[in-house]
Each structure stands twice: as structure tokens, then as C-alpha cells.
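COURSE: Structural Biology Practicum
ASSIGNMENT: Worksheet 4, Part C
STUDENT ID: 0417
INSTRUCTIONS: Below are two proteins. For each, the amino acid sequence is given first, followed by its C-alpha cell string. Answer the questions at the end about the second protein only.

PROTEIN I
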Amino acid sequence: MTDYAQIGLGYAERRLADPRLFRPLRAAIGDAETVVNVGAGTGNYEPSDCIVVAVEPSETMLAQRAPSAAPAVRAFAEALPFRDDAFDVAMGVLTVHHWSDRARGLEEVQRVARRLAILYFEPTMTDDMWVLEYWPEILDLPSENDPPGEQFFRRHLDVRDIVAVPVPVDCIDGFSGAYWARPEAYLDPGVRAGMSSFAQLDPGTVGAGTARLRADLESGRWDARHGSLRTLAEYDIGYRIVTT
């Protein structure tokens, strides 16, 4: 499992809930009264009109939750401290790929909740992630090694639906794919600090990729290859919501 003890520092300031991403997630949660947010982090996408309990293993993350945030317990997805069917819905936002035993984690969330609504990245769409041209080492990280995608979820869940979630060009949530049309953002170490993938890379690797990107931006090479992205209002990079 990804260690957020260090890489989660400052996460709350850089990872803000984007309402355009929240809307499809809230729709997937539906008329649930009780929700457990597994791998909750700082809790940015927790619905305020439900009774929510957050589950987060990292003390660093828990310490950054706002005083007004839902109550949280320190626990792992693979061993949830709740009775069977304790919640109407279990939600998760870009978390399953960080679990140490993803299949076991899904067994647990299905045990404690009657339905699931999980936002994830579809790994079959990595070819559309130009960021990997500059930091291909991301794919070697444990969290990105055979990450869960549609086939995985269909194998372990009784899937009701999988819907695409396009990312707006001015997305305010700074996850790894958020700046698909704003490449200059990846030159900022503060922006990269809010992305778990970059935080897991060694400084030399990050620096080398940053130098290549800076050079391509200055020469116009990046725009020659990907500049058409700057004209789009939103883009389907590969983010999906799976529901049961």
C-alpha cells in the first residue's frame, strides 16, 4: 500500500474537490442515507447531505481533515471495523490502486455496504497520458503495477454501470491527470507534491523528466505534439466511476 506518511504532506491545500467531478459521483451515490468513504484522505468528495464515516489509514491524511469533515477512523480497506451491511453505499475516490490487497479490499467494502460507487483510472487508457512521455517510471511504481481497471472490477463486483468522467480544462483538483492541457503546471514542485505518483519517484527521476518537459515547452515541441489539447473544454483521460 502507498505510504502517505510523507507524500500526504500538504495534500489538503493542493487537492480541492472540483464540483464538476463531484456531480457524477454524487449521482452514483444516489439516495443513500449512510456512506462510508474508504481511503478517504482529506475527504474532499464526501457528500454533505449524507451521514458519512471516513476510513483512512494515514495519520498524516487524518490530521489534515477539516474540523467540519465527517468523523473518521484509522483503518485499512482490507479490514474494515464495521458490521455487515452497516452502510447504504461505500465510496472511494482514486484509492483502490493504493490498496495492498485490492481483491480483499473489495470483499470488505461489499461486506459493509449494500452498494458501491468508486472513482478510478482506467489503465487501458494510459496511452492518452502524455505525462508518461516525460516520467515513464510512474508505471513501475507499486501503486501503478497492474492497477485495477474495468476487467478487474467486473471480475470482483456485480457491476451495474461504468461511466466516463471527463476532466475539465481548468480542474481545481490537482490529481495526476488534472493538468492535461496545462503542461506548465507539472514544472511546479508544489503542484507535483499533491500527486502521489510524483511523490513516490526519486528526486533524480523527477528532475530529469521536468528538464525534458521544460525544454519541450520552450522549444515548442510539446505544443507541436499536444497543443490541440489546449483548445478543449474537457477531456476524457480515462477516469471512470464504477457502481454496483
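PROTEIN II
(use this one for the questions)
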Amino acid sequence: MNLNRITPFRGPGGKVPRIIHFIGIGGIGMSALARFFHSKGAQVSGYDKTETSLTKELIQEGMKVHYDDNPGLVPDKVELVVYTPAIPNDHKEWAYCREKGYKLMKRSEVLQWITESSFNICIAGTHGKTTITTMIAHILRDSGFGCNAFLGGISVNYNTNFWPQAPAGGNEKNVCVVEADEYDRSFLKLSPDIAIITAMDADHLDIYGTASAMEEAFIEFSKRLKPGGKLIKRFGLKRGAELANGKEMMYSLQNESADTYAKNIRMQNGGYAFDVVIREKLIENITLNMGGMHNVENAVAAMATAAELDIDDQKIRDAVSSFRGVKRRFEYIIRNDRLVFIDDYAHHPEELRALITGARSLFRDRKCTVIFQPHLYSRTRDLAEGFAAVLDLADETILLPIYPARELPIPGVSSEMILGRMKNENKQVVSKEDLLNWMEKSFRKNVNKELGELL
């Protein structure tokens, strides 16, 4: 891949905005952009609805964050206001910034602007994109290749969702690794040099309306590849043949009909050892220190991307071995001979399936209890049947009330929609308070120290 044609980010008029305000700064994508501009020396401030560990970190890094919807807290002479599409129209700061005529841009528009002059590796898909994005960014950083990383999760290795390109021998390459989010069609603002597509399962039907419309958006995303760009797609994708033709590679967990795949997979210490075939090349003795066979497949996609950049095989092997994962992606919270507690963000039936089957394969002799909080009323309404079928794979299921995020309640939609469709009778819906009581009663006597820290 030729990286010589790209130049460092400068922004409109050849300069970076000096004063930037974010409405919704605590979001995982918004905070990555805030950190980007802060790294460029801009004065960054922002509003969010609630205080979180992430907003606390932004404050510690030198950004100003407030939690009151107060137009008086918007900086004077602000040059750019970045907002999330989830912000309600009656938000006071949002209305104030519109009335003042400030330059307003969606997160996706800002990301488009940042990446206009860069070499872009964009990872899209309804499952796996956060882990693959973070793996690729880690390989590039660990190997010395370098990149700007815009992640949809917190890297365990670096405890952040953004890091800047480090100069390589004084020559900044300006390579961006970007999680390409399908929500609100945001990924259609990007122009990849390398595009990865992991899955096109139905999701965000509140935006797309139908599964077919969502698939069309992924097809359109694939066609945004720059001339000479490379598409890396998962083997067996529905409508995969309709994705942009030209230079492409198919990856798979183990299917030898793909261009790149894993072989000789062995489980070890809650992770895996395996070899990877990348076209005619074999990279042997890869170690992945995280659970879930789906993460082996994610590693295959990440390694294929690194190989496209001509990164040395040993550097790829070392980087994968040192990769510690993404917070809330098959993250081990407790792991001992009495209890394994895994935290995972899985919010789609297929992600839940990968989580449950992965945990069961690694810990075959353990009882599998799943504590699941549905994310969004619309997703629960649209995918209740799928959630119920997958949760039946567990020995016991504890459901929490729906996490609404950006949505208002939908009449008749609740966690009971899933509960009522499950066949396994070992199930219940509980409040957060009752969950803590249940956990203490069920597990405290076996793991006093670890569970005490967790609770």
C-alpha cells in the first residue's frame, strides 16, 4: 500500500479549530473525537447528561465537562460545535448554538473531515467491529507502524478509545483506523483505503426500517472504497457478492475456501493458540489471550489487514500475543477455579450467541448463568424472538429492565417480551437492586474477596 500521497490533518483553512464544544461528549465515539482535538492543542469542552468514568477521564486530561443543560456554559467564541444525532431537539444548549449561528457538525461529519486527507482503515459490521478495530490499531501501534485510532470501545492495553499517530522517524504518515458505525448511516461519510465488513445482520431498524435497507447501506459503504482500495469481507456474508468488486479478500474462522483463515486451533488458559493462512503465506504459533472463538476470527481479519500493510510476521505475532482486549468485550472480571465472571457488551442475538457458545466451549464443566440487560426499546421490540432463542442456550437467565439510552419508552415493550418467549423456565426479570441481592446470596459465600470488589 502506498502511503506517500497523504498529508497530516490540518482542518478547514489549513488549521485546527481552537475552541470546540461537544454536545454529548461522554459518548464513546464523541469522546474519541474530543481526545483527538485535545491532542491537537484545541480548547475542548462539552456537555453530557450524566457523569461517568469516561467523562471523569476527559476532565483529568484537561477538558471541561458539565452535566447541566445550560447555554451559559458554552464557551465564548466557540469555533465548532460537535453534536450527537441522539440529542433531543428541545435541548437548550443545542438550540442556543443554532440561534447563535455557530458552526455545527455531526460526529460523522467531523470524522469525515478528519479523514479526508488520511489513509483510512475502516471497520464496519453489526458484530465484531470494535474488537477488530482495536486489534488492528494495537498491531499498528505495537509494531511501530503507527496510526490515529478512533475506537468504539476502551482498549485494555492503553485504557483509551483514541490515540494519535506517533511520528515514524520524524515522518508522520497520518493513517487512521476508524470504527465505521452503521447507526444513522454514519459510515457512509467515510472513504476507506481498506474496508473490513464483518456482518450485515438486521439491527437499527428504527433507522433503516427493513433488514434489506440495512444491507443496501453496507453495499453502498463498500463502494466508498478509494480507487485501488482493498475490501476485506467475512466469508459467507449474505449478499456478499454484491459488495464492491475489485481488490478483495475473504476471511473466515476455519473455512479453507476463504483467502485467509485459522487452523490448528488449540484452547489454552482461557485463550487460544493457532496458525493463520493468509493467501499463500502461513503464520504459525499465534497466541490470543482472550476468550471466544469469534475473537479468533476477529484476529484473522486484523492480521490480514496488517499483512496488507507489509508489517513483519513476527511483529504481527508479538502484537496479537500482547493484545489484552477491549473492555466489555469478553472481558474477564473474575476467573478462578470457583467462578468465571465475563463482562460483554453483546446487544444483538448473534453477539449473545457468540458469547454464550464461546464461554461454554472454554468452561465446559461450569453452570452458565447469563445476566442480560436489553439495549434500546426498538431493538427489543424488533429482535425479541432472537434474544429469547439465544438466551435459552444458558442454564439460567436473569433479565434486567431495558436500558433506554437515547430512546423514550415504547408502549408494551419491556424485558418481559423476551422472558415470555423463552422456553427455559429457569429465568426471571429483576431490578438492579434485586440483582445485587441475588448475586450476593448466590455467589458471596464462594468468592468473598473478588465479588466484594465487584459489588
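ANSWER KEY EXCERPT:
Q1: The chain is about 30% helix and 20% strand.
Q2: The chain has a mean pLDDT of 87.
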